[in-house]
Amino acid sequence: MQDVLVIGAGAFGLTAAIELRRRGCRVTVVDPGPVPGARQASADLNKAVRMEYGADRQYLEMVDRSIDGWEAWNARFGVNVYEPTGVLMLAGPAMADGGFEFESLRAVGAVGHTPERLSGVALVERFAAWRPGQYAEGFYHARGGYTRSALTVEKLAGYARELGVAVRIGDPAARLVDRAGRVAGAALASGEEVGADHTVVAAGVWTTRLVPELGPMMRATAHPIFYLRPRDPAAYRPPRFCVFCADVANTGWYGFPVDDGTGLLKLAKHDAGDPVDPDAERGGVSATRVDELRAFLRSSLPGLVDAELVDAKRCFYSDTLDGHFVIDRHPERAGLTVATGGSGHAMKMAPVLGGLIADAVEGASNDWLGRFAWRTQASSVPGDAARATS
User: Fold this and answer.
1) Which residues contact 10 (CB under 8 A, 6 or more apart)?
2) Distance (Å, rounded) from C-alpha 168 to C-alpha 2?
3) How many beta carbons lie within 10 A of that of residue 306, not counting itself?
4) What distances in angstroms separate CA 348 from CA 16, 77, 180, 193, one per listed residue?
């Protein structure tokens, strides 16, 4: 039985710890905390779970399998960490060959799913909050929704502890320890050393501080998220309103129905983002970003123009240059695996991440891992096709 140290208690780290423990390893997780914490990419009110990745079959299959996992987690945890609201994909101009929405529709149909294609008139009849004429058409896919992301992290941490994982919060890893030609654990901020046969670095935007070799491949970026309180919350709850992507590959805008616990509706922008210091505060969305929100609401969701803007903050992405994760053994440092680079779209795949990371640790064959191989320059394979580039 090998000892594994996992650095980071977000979606990558906790799922890895759970799967490695289930495979018989002794596992310790260290994290600065709290868990969930405001500085984690995975810690927020909610995150979208969508199968739509343009023509990218691998990501589609990963999310499809993840949805099965989300449903299993709902049953295991006795609370809905995943809400299957369905996803509405809105196209600005009519969908056409090569466009994100058209290719997504074709791809999910090719694997046996049956999303409903909607004309511009039909989508407003069904989802009345949208401004008539703003979107030429779209489609609704019932297989999808959102995860309560902070709650998910909380439940995963609890599950890990139940399995016997030692989850140590408040004393983060300061550096990796090399001994006898291999990584042999980490030195914590307190000075204590935690030894391990294998170490997994899943430290999100802080990964390059422990593994600086990945510096040329990674950057931390900030993306705006907004929380509104609608005057008529019933108009923004399922089935009248659901998770949406609004011509997302061009605009970056996506959002969620009203959260029953807080009464808030979250909107966010999946775009190139702004470079950021990972230790900066998450608050402080610029006036320019708020202006972008107001313009989007005027053009698309007029009933929210006068909604109270309760909060606005920044979501930090652990970005890779190509938008793909890095999940692989280090090519030169024995005993070290890296699992990072969520690039704004990892949380939806949390139920399959643990298996991917454990396979990387064990050197097991996995058809999906090739895309996430160690690299210090961008892959030629395009990343998340939903992401706006500006």
Assistant:
1) 40, 41, 42, 43, 153, 202, 204
2) 18
3) 10
4) 15, 17, 39, 33
Burial status of residue 180 (CB atoms within 10 A of its CB: 0-12, 13-18, 19 or more): exposed
DSSP, residue by residue, 298-351: HHH-GGGTTSEEEEEEEEEEEEETTS--EEEE-SSSBTEEEEE--TT-SGGGHH
HSE-CB of 348 using CA atoms within 13 angstroms: 25
* 188: β partners: 173
Check if the beta carbon of residue 186 is closer than 8 Å to that of residue 176. Answer: yes
Give the whole-angstrom CA distance, residue 59 versus residue 317. 18
pTM of the full structure: 0.96
The pLDDT tens digits for 284-329 are: 799 999 999 999 999 999 999 999 999 999 989 999 999 999 999 9
Rounded to whole angstroms, the Cα distance separating 40 from 212 reads 20
Given the structure tokens 């990343």, which residue do they identify? 383
